[in-house]
ACDE family multidrug resistance protein
Amino acid sequence: MKNNVSVWCIISMASIPLVMTLGNSMLIPILPIFEEQLNINSFQSSLIITSYSIAAILLIPIAGYLSDRYGRKKVIIPSLLLTLIGGLIAGIASMMSSVPFLWIILGRILQGFGAAGAAPIVLPLVGDLYKDNDEQASSCLGIIETSNTFGKVLSPIVGAALAVIVWYIPFFAISVFSLISLIFVFFFIKVPKDNEPKDSLNQFLAHVKDIFIREGHWLYVVFGIGAYSMLILFGILFYLSDILEKLHDIEGVKKGVILAIPLLVLCLASLVTGKKIKGDLVFMRYILLVSLGLISILSPFVGFLEEQVRTLLLITSAIGLAIGGLLPTLDAMITENIEKKERGTITSLYSAARFIGVAAGPPLISIFMKDSLAVATIMSGILGATILICVLLFIKPNAQ
């Protein structure tokens, strides 16, 4: 690798989103098991996912600022430690408490705080390591996003397999994965020294405000696409997990494998897209338009196919393909077009937007699944078409 970035450094960076994805998505296929073991309803079980995401949303902007001011690694390591502790709290409470639900939520909130200072900080770290080399940065970001999506592929299988042993084992597994990533980060990521003078908080906020005044026309659209793609993805995963078990009697590892199919398509699409975009903004805009068009057309069908598992998997896999094209493209657009001193904050705000989608997807779909799923999926298609129009109007690389 050029720019003195070792293979182990890349592996270490890629381990962070992998762990954070496993820490959240691994629980989706076993939410029905939590409902049974904890005597809770589907909305309450969705809070196990949502509490993690809301906590991350609240802390991400602060973590981004701290990483810009004090360094990426100094924020990532304590964040991974928080994720580890949160998993232990949730796991031990599940073993020892007669009413563990609130303790599990507390552990998930701590993990969300950890997620805020870990995965979002990887994006500006890549930008720091590959300064002035958009092609290498795009390729590395593709690997990072592929690791993220590969975690989504593994998570339903790993989560279901671990829950077969004991239902609360996945909480402890998150702690183990976090410890491994922490060790990798500590030993293998060498952050370049930054001798540039640091702005005061007021100066920093003024710079960020200036960025949004100057670049907001496309940044707001990118943030919206990030939130929308995660809303669709996690809504679909929650929905599939629920109907496969409750409607089709498909449980355990078999259900995990089925859930992994659209996620595998998403993972491969992320890998290929990251290698192809090479900092080309015109090509990136084309990917955004095609992907959003595909999601807008296909997502309404999800609400009408609960009895047809194979057709539903085909549709959701095509949606996974589109989301896989979107994610590394959005990462590259932000990381490569924001100055280093504000990069951590802007990429963190983008990550917060994605977490909004993660947080909203499961509870929204649990509400709509009762009697208005078709309406919800049609609305999701209309929302996608609206965002597509915003891309046409506000993201114009040739004009910048």
Notes: The chain has a mean pLDDT of 87. DSSP finds 14 helices and no strands in the chain. The radius of gyration is 20 Å. Residues 234 and 387 are 18 Å apart (CA to CA).
